[in-house]
Specification:
Structural class: alpha+beta
Strand content: 15-25%
Protein name: Serine/threonine protein kinase
Pfam family, one: Pkinase
Oligomer: single chain
Radius of gyration: 26 Å
Number of strands: 22
Largest sheet: 7 strands, mixed
Distance between the termini: 79 Å
InterPro entries: DUF4384, Kinase-like_dom_sf, Prot_kinase_dom
Shape: globular
Number of domains: 4
Keywords: ATP-binding, Kinase, Nucleotide-binding, Serine/threonine-protein kinase, Transferase
GO molecular function: ATP binding; protein serine/threonine kinase activity
């Protein structure tokens, strides 16, 4: 490159630093590796400027009570759904407003009562209803806004799921339906478009159109659901029941594995995937049995059958070769400038392998029964808890707890536990695990305002957490047991390492991580 070219090169660097547009020619990029590296740096700088750009002012279409209503995001025969903002809570919400036609046939008091019943459902896999009211003559309810995509959109973008990943999704949706059914409600329109996947990986069963009291579902929505997801008896005029919700869920699982909408004329588990284990095919076939009596009696029973599939031979089968990878790994020309060298760390992050699909549940145990609880659930002294995790690939998992006294405790891994990292692929494992062949639980043993839990998962050991474990001199040699296999945390690091500090250290780590954080207030008895 001539001195004049060097001067032009310097001007390009100045334009990048000043966030000004640059002109790139194909010849320059092909002939000069320095130019190619500089173009890569310019693209990275533009991406980070876009992230840091100020958020444009929120467009308000109209106001409904205290909510500032923005764009309409969905509509059906009975309701419209808008993205709205609640200035009192400082958060976006999804607002479902009844259409005038639906309001004419559905009593407002019945709608509000249904909303109150929906609001009592406390499950992390069911969209949380925050309130219901009537303003300006329109009845509506608002719920949490899920920032993510539907399962239908994800399959259209990335292709079908691997068998074990589909089973994990099914387990989460079974838990969601179990919570809905226990409240005496039906969903009525389970399909991939009504299942949302939050950016952090949480699956949420959304109630954007159907759902509610069984009589209401069958009286007002008989003709509004998609035929592909309707059970044969419903297509012939029968009322929807819990068995219908499970039939539709079987269709969702078939869709996740095939990428195609099920044929309502052929309700079995017919799809061309040789790598799907027979056990999983059998679960789908039973869920989609033409006879409602032949289906699973409860969503919990179907969840147990799906969990057994993760232990069956061939459960960790990979997705077919026709499934396209979800992330490109583009190479980068060798950087010759200091600025390009500084960008190498960012490029390495872009090349990092994606985290495996993981499914985590927090359980509260009462004898042989286990209840899935969500963030914000109140707990009491002597409550016994555990975490259930399943991952499609081996994963390193770490569990921490702190209370309002500032004491940080590591609950997993611990030296005296039989359960060790990494977690095996395709299996559902409960943490803190086992010791001496006994399943252990976490007992709420000290009075406090709240308990906080942090669960960290990674595809590889997390150096900062491994170092913490190795250098902590307070590690107990034994796990202390109380009652029938209850874990009293066996490690007490100094109070100078609060949970927020640990999270900040993890945020600074150059490693893809998945974090779950729970805050459980103590119940005043």
């Amino acid at each position: 490159m001539t001195p004049r070219d060097d001067a032009a090169f310097d001007r390009l660097i100045e334009r990048i630093l000043d966030a000004e547009p640059c002109e790139w020619t194909a010849a320059d990029l092909a002939d000069d590796p320095r130019m190619a590296a500089l173009k890569t740096l310019s693209d990275i700088a533009a991406a980070f400027r876009a992230i840091d750009a100020p958020v444009p002012a929120r467009a308000i279409a109209f106001r409904w009570g205290p909510l500032e209503v923005g764009e309409r995001v969905a509509e059906g025969g009975s309701a419209e759904v808008f993205r709205a903002h609640d200035p009192r809570l400082g958060r976006d919400v999804a607002l479902k407003l009844l259409t005038p036609a639906a309001a004419a046939t559905l009593r407002t008091d019945a709608f509000l009562e249904e909303a109150r019943r929906l609001a009592r459902i406390r499950d992390c896999h069911v969209v949380g209803v925050l309130g219901a009211a009537v303003h300006d003559g329109r009845a509506g309810l608002w719920c949490e806004w899920i920032d993510g995509c539907t399962l239908a959109e994800r399959i259209a973008r990335d292709g079908p799921l691997a068998a074990d990943e589909a089973a994990l999704v099914g387990i989460g949706l079974c838990r969601a339906l179990a919570a809905v059914h226990q409240a005496g409600l039906l969903h009525g329109d389970v399909k991939p478009h009504n299942v949302l996947r939050e950016r952090g990986g949480r699956l949420v069963l959304a109630d954007l159109g159907a759902g509610g009291d069984p009589a209401t579902v069958n009286a007002s929505l008989r003709t509004q659901a998609s035929p592909a997801w309707l059970a044969p008896e419903v297509l012939h005029g029968a009322a929807r029941t819990q068995a219908h919700d499970l039939y539709a869920l079987g269709g969702v699982l078939q869709f996740l594995l095939s990428g195609e909408t099920p044929d309502p004329v052929r309700p079995g588990a017919a799809f061309d995937r040789s790598d799907v284990p027979p056990a999983l095919r059998a679960v789908i076939a039973r869920a989609r049995a033409a006879d409602p009596a032949a289906r699973y009696a409860t969503a919990g029973g179907m969840a147990d059958a799906l969990a057994a599939c993760l232990h069956a031979p061939g459960a960790a089968a990979a997705a077919p070769a026709s499934v396209a990878p979800t992330r490109r790994r583009a190479g980068m020309a060798a950087a010759v400038l200091a600025l390009a060298i500084a960008a190498a760390g960012m490029v390495a992050l872009l090349r990092a392998p994606p985290l495996p699909e993981m499914h985590l549940e927090l359980l509260r145990h009462d004898g042989d029964r286990a209840q899935v609880i969500a963030d914000g659930t109140a707990v009491a002294l002597r409550d016994r808890l555990s975490f259930a995790l399943a991952s499609q690939r081996p994963a390193w998992v770490y569990v921490f707890n702190t209370d309002d006294h500032g004491t940080l405790q590591r609950l997993f891994p611990l030296p005296a536990l039989d359960t060790r990292n990494p977690m095996p692929a395709g299996r559902r494992v409960e943490l803190p695990g086992r010791s001496g062949g006994r399943s252990l639980r976490i007992e709420v043993s000290s009075p406090a305002q709240a308990e906080e839990f942090l669960v960290v998962a990674s595809a590889a050991p997390v150096d900062v957490l491994e170092t913490l474990a190795a250098t902590d001199g307070a590690t107990d040699a034994e796990v202390r047991l109380r009652g029938s296999g209850v874990l009293v945390p066996g490690i007490a690091p100094p109070a100078s390492a609060p949970l927020d500090t640990l999270v900040a250290q993890l945020d600074a780590a150059d490693q893809p991580l998945r974090l779950w954080r729970y805050r459980l207030p103590h119940r005043a008895d």
